[in-house]
């Protein structure tokens, strides 16, 4: 399970950071999901190995422009590239009139079906052959949600001693059991997959949150979760000067929540454009890191555009350098 940050700036881009976009790869070798799509996301994709042809679904946390303005361009470019496979667009209900108006007023059309799915509905659940996704409401100036991704396709290990003891010989039936299929034996017995296989590891679980000034709202979402991706728009001193209206979190708030929730891995993103990577004027990204480390003792990362991370099967999180 891999994550590629396509944009890590809040509100407006900087020379070094685009606005919000995140790719989650899981399932097939090039299969991926997009979470949020700020302006310029399709340009960012050109600097990665990700292809809109293998994009399985788009998830939008909320309607603000720094999370949505890239959608019309990305969708029409996908169509012009020859995409024909249907594409789920999952997010707030305002996405449908926004996209339909953009297409209608620019003489544009799509060569594939765009399926609008309301992530704000009380019964929202979405699943394909690789992940199961649920949503959780957050606190922001407009309705906003976090998405929890849980892998569903886990490798099964054959209990060979039990198979041999019950007279089930090695062969195609073993392969079907390992794929999760019950089998009917030649003597009429039904061999149930749960009796002859085991799943030796836990499914990986990741929560990607939208804009949010109350991290504690994610308490239920983060139970047994291995990684939280959350905004840290400000350091606490800047947040105090800005005031409550923007409804964003400080690094101290998010880190304190992650520590209390005993989250093993935390990636912070969505940094105000006032924070730079270096220089002698104004606040720097290192200020956010320092504040977060004071409150959180787990594995902490501050995302950069195009930085890639891998959540391994043993639940360790590493940066990918290649």
Helix share bin: 10-25%
CATH class of the largest domain: Alpha Beta
Question: Strand order, biggest sheet?
Answer: 7-6-5-4-3-1-20-21
Largest beta sheet, briefly?
A: 8 strands, mixed
What is the mean predicted local confidence, pLDDT?
95
What would the principal axes of the Cα set say about the shape? globular
Distance between the termini: 16 Å
Going by CATH, the homologous superfamily of the largest domain would be Ribonuclease Z/Hydroxyacylglutathione hydrolase-like
Number of helical elements: 10
The name of the CATH topology of the largest domain is: Metallo-beta-lactamase, Chain A
Structural classification: alpha/beta
**What is the count of distinct domains?**
2
Q: How much is the radius of gyration in Å? A: 22 Å
Low-confidence stretches are: none
CATH second-level architecture of the largest domain? 4-Layer Sandwich
